[in-house]
Amino acid sequence: MVVERPIRDGRVSSIELLDHYFQALMKALSVRRFSRPKAIVAVPASATLVESRSIITALKNAGFSEVVTLDTVLASAIGIGFDVNEPNGSMVVNLGAATALSGIIAFGGVVAESHAFCGGNAMDQAIMDLLKYRSHVSVDESVAEEIKLALARVSDEPARYMSSLIGRDLTSGSPIKVEIDEGDVRDVIADPVKRVIEVMLDNLSHCPAELAQDLVFGGVHLCGGHSQLPGLAEAIANSVNIPVTVVDEPRYCTANGLARYITETHRWS
């Protein structure tokens, strides 16, 4: 048995699997094809035209009569509660599992946007690689995720916590218990964190001069599950010299924004 993902690292890996995924989702939600429901989906600016079309096609094949797409950063801004039609600029950074998206919102659209394929998955992979090459132990993504949630912190404080886990010894193939401390995890996630900061700095470099003052006073708003990493907001603030805030319910900002957009289309159109 092989587990495959229709979307991997923020990109469509298999159109055929994506079709099956949406059809299974429709069945799980008890949505019948003949009802011809409508769908709205957040698509990042990093998506190619082919990827965007494949998502739309897969949704229509699953039984949706109409598919509306919305930029992910714009959806996140609406979910946070911003009135995106205002002329004042706002900076929203969506740190998801596979991508880091940074966008400046004003006048109902995205004025400037930057992205990189780094996120929570990159941190999980870094932890898996650490255990593989240092301890010759193999663990799956779920174990790496647990370690990240327990030990990943962005700070200069001495390591205080340690966690033990069960993995597979690559030499003998038998289960083995290993330990990993907070300092090890902090070291291996440093590169993904650095890439997130670089994305934001690149986005700020493309900010129009007339919106720069708005960002200084309004600050940066972080959302996405990756944004909850302890100490990340402080590390970013020290690098970009702008106040950084993690919004309420950061995991659900994009989904909430899509829901608000589709129910209040007359306001956002």
List the helices and strands and how they pair.
Blueprint (H helix, E strand, L loop, with lengths): L6 E2 L2 E2 L2 H14 L9 E6 L5 H14 L3 E6 H9 L9 E6 L4 E7 L2 E8 L3 H16 L1 E2 L2 H11 L10 E8 L5 E7 H7 L1 H16 L3 H10 L1 E4 L8 H9 L3 E3 L6 H11 L1 H4 L1
Parallel strand pairs: 3-4, 5-11, 11-12
Antiparallel strand pairs: 1-2, 5-6, 6-7, 8-9, 9-10
Named at the architecture level, the CATH assignment of the domain at 84-118 and 190-250 is: 2-Layer Sandwich
CATH superfamily of the domain at 84-118 and 190-250: ATPase, nucleotide binding domain
What's the end-to-end separation, in Å?
46 Å
Radius of gyration: 20 Å
CATH topology of the domain at 84-118 and 190-250, what is it called? Nucleotidyltransferase, domain 5
Give the total of beta strands. Answer: 12
What's the main sheet like? 5 strands, mixed
The CATH class of the domain at 84-118 and 190-250, by name, is Alpha Beta
- Count the helices. How many? 11
Overall 3D shape = flat
